[in-house]
Each structure stands twice: as C-alpha cells, then as structure tokens.
Give the backbone structure.
Amino acid sequence: MIETPGREQLTDLLAQQWEAIALLVTDLDEKAWRRTSPLPGWTLFDVVAHVIGTESWLLGETPPPHDPLRPKTDVRTLPHVRNEVAVLNEIWVDRLRPLSGKRLLALFDETTERRRAALAAMDDDAWQASTVSPVGQVPYGRFMRVRLFDCWMHELDLADGIGRSVPEGGGRAEAAFAELTIGLGRAVVKGAKAPDGSLITLDLTGPVTRQVHVAVAGGRGSVLDEVSEEPTTVIRLDSGLFARLRGGRTTADRHPGEVAVEGDTALGERLVHNLAFTI
C-alpha cells in the first residue's frame, strides 16, 4: 500500500514542481514556445497552458471566453481527445493559445502562487474530503498526488521537447512514481496477457530505484511490496524510460538495447510494449 504524502509535504512538493517547470521555460523565445512536445497535438506552450487550466479549475475558475475572431475548434473531434477530462483540458489550452509565451509564463506564476496559498490554507478535514478526480472519487489529498504526478510528467515533456536534461530523481519523482506503478496489474493482465501464476518483476535501475512486483491470480494482477519466490519474468530498465513508456510518450521500439528481459521473454516483451496508460 503506497501512502499519500501528508498535506504539508505534498503542498511543498507541488510548489517545488511548479518552480521547476517555470525555471525550465523561463528563457524560451516565442518560436521555442511553439515547438512540438512529446504529447500528440500539443506544443510546449500547450503543455504549460494545460497546467494553468487544471490549477485554475481547482481554484473554481472557468476557461476564458472564445475569441470570435479565431476559428472555433470542436475539441471533441481531435484524435487524442478520448474522455471528458481531455475535453476540458483542450478547451483551456485552446483559449490560452492567443497569449504570448511571456504572458503565459506570467499567468502560470500567478496561478500557481494562488494555488500554493489555497493549499496552505486548507485544514485536515478539507484535505481528507472526498472529491471528484481523474482517478475517481478520492480524498482531496490523493487528488493532489495525481496533480504532482501530472506536473512531474509534464516537466519531462517540456525537457524532452526543449532538448534539456533535468534531475529525474528526488522527492517529487518518488511521490509521483506511485501513480505510475499503482495500476500495473491491468497492463500485465489486459495488455501483456499474463496467465495465472505469472510473477513479473520490474527492476528500475534509477534515478528512481525500486523493484515492482506484479503477481497474477484469478485473472487479476496485483502489485506486491515484496515476494518470496522467483519471478516468471524480470524486466530491467531505467526509471526515466519506464515513466515515458507508462505515460505513452514513447515506445519500446524506439529504445533498442535499453530494456533487458529475463525469464519468459515473450511475456516480458508483451508487457514492455503495452505499458502505456491514461488517467
């Protein structure tokens, strides 16, 4: 069972994450802001606009009105829009696109500062209150771990789009990683078609170093903290590649020689090619 960090700790991690994003894009010129990102249909500008949109929504705000002088896009027709959360995301991104990159960054700083203040003002009852989130009806604090994960992944998107390296370990990554591993059972059973009795170990070699074990029984995959028997399959790769595969930012075929599979190699290869998930 992976615990959600406490209110003060998670609020601090979110503040650090927003600062990391701002630092990463602070020197982009207007042309660089419009470079493509690893996310389908989104530029670097759009990634930051998406974060602004979600944090603004959490502040109780709605997207700016559509500029009647701009063509109106039916965001539901976009190929990467697959659910209602994605629809709202796209509306926010579309409405912010007329801004300059400099103005977008100023809005990002202003919005995240207000979010820090709002989180700091919450009491424990509000932190534990049940709320709607992309992972269902959960305590507000659990939702904020999802927010940390989302923003952390988008930092990687921005870094990859810009062509810069950023630290991918530490407290923010450790907390965010919980969202990458919590649903692995579905990928093992539905994606990799692992039969009952399978035991798969993902050996992440760093900078987030851990072993994740998934056992299959009764047609369901369960993530275990530790195991006492030899795994059916061991998959070794670095945590950065794992995060990008789980987030659907890349595919295993684009990284030959970076993933090692031992044991039932066919099962391991199927899993490596079916890790991607969407919140």
Q: What stands out?
A: The two ends are 19 Å apart (CA to CA). Strands lie at 130-133, 136-139, 199-205, 209-217, 220-224, 233-237, 260-263. The chain is about 50% helix and 15% strand. The chain has a mean pLDDT of 92.
